[in-house]
Design goal:
With 265 residues, the protein is α/β, with parallel strands linked by helices. Helix content is 35%, strand content 20%. The protein has helices at 17-27, 46-53, 66-76, 92-96, 112-120, 135-142, 152-158, 200-212, 218-221, 228-233, 247-257; strands at residues 13-14, 35-38, 55-60, 79-84, 101-106, 126-134, 161-169, 174-175, 182-189. Helix 3 (66-76) links the parallel strand 3 (55-60) and strand 4 (79-84).
Length: 265
């Protein structure tokens, strides 16, 4: 279907048939699974997913795309459920009902991180996620300690999911071509017991504070959260910077703080 892209919504529609097929193969939908596509746009991935799977829920904010998407569903004789809403306002848990959902999407560059954090809030009903994002964002998502791009996004995602970059998507695959490379990434929820995170809210607070000023040592960055003795008790040097601490270290620190009342940084 043809549609004029809207710069205000960060729209870049995928148009390369080979890349579209590669993404669908990576998702590999199976009978009985519940697929939810975020931002279907002009339907580049929607159409082959419907052709292969015959049932799909899409979340689309642009009202001008609703009617063409509905027409595509009718044309294919498929079961297409359209949720016309801002994805950040959609309750994935309610959408999943009593089952699990698989999230798929070419995420808008301007709100990709908020969408990722929103998905984390509903991870208990998500079996996996396949997203296309700016390659720079995927690099940050998958970065390890010591990397210049290892940060809050890396730690928050890796504590809850296995992050697997799949392949690069060049600008020429889109209409209009963006000025940056994109990449497809797979996120698979981790078993909560794998890292033993028992204090998720404290974890979020610790990670946010630790990376709020990257040049600061943990001793200074976490001054309003905990003392150096707590950091040392977790096997972490208070004089190091957040970018050198592995995910497990932040988990240990959050668990050690437990329900202790501390001020917000």
């Amino acid at each position: 279907m043809s549609h004029q892209t809207k710069k205000s919504l960060g729209q870049h529609f995928l148009a390369d048939p080979g890349m579209i097929e590669k993404i669908v193969r990576a998702v590999d939908p199976r009978p009985g699974q519940r697929l939810v596509e975020i931002g279907p746009g002009a339907g580049a991935i929607t159409r082959p997913l419907l052709q292969r799977h015959q049932t799909l829920t899409v979340i689309e904010f642009d009202r001008d795309l609703i009617e063409p998407l509905a027409a595509m569903g009718e044309e294919l004789g498929a079961e297409l459920t359209i949720v016309h809403a801002d994805v950040l306002a959609v309750d994935f848990t309610e959408l999943a009902g009593t089952g699990l959902i698989r999230l798929v999407g070419n995420l808008p560059y301007n709100i990709s991180s908020p969408i990722l954090f929103h998905a984390l809030d509903h991870l208990s009903v998500v079996s996996d996620m396949h997203f296309m994002l700016q390659k720079e964002v995927v690099d940050r998502m998958a970065a390890g300690p010591g990397s210049k791009v290892y940060g809050r996004l890396s730690v928050m995602l890796q504590a809850r999911c296995h992050v697997t970059p799949l392949f690069r998507v060049p600008p020429g695959c889109f209409r209009p071509p963006p000025k940056v490379d994109s990449a497809v990434v797979r996120l698979t929820p981790r078993d909560p017991a794998e890292l033993g995170l028992t204090q998720p809210k404290r974890f979020e607070q610790v990670v946010r504070a630790a990376f709020s000023q990257r040049r600061k040592t943990l001793r200074n960055a976490l001054a309003t959260v905990c003392g150096s003795e707590v950091i040392e008790a977790c096997g972490i040097n208070p004089g190091c910077r957040a970018e050198t601490v592995p995910v497990a270290g932040f988990v240990a620190l959050a668990n050690a703080l437990g329900d202790v009342c501390v001020s917000e940084p």
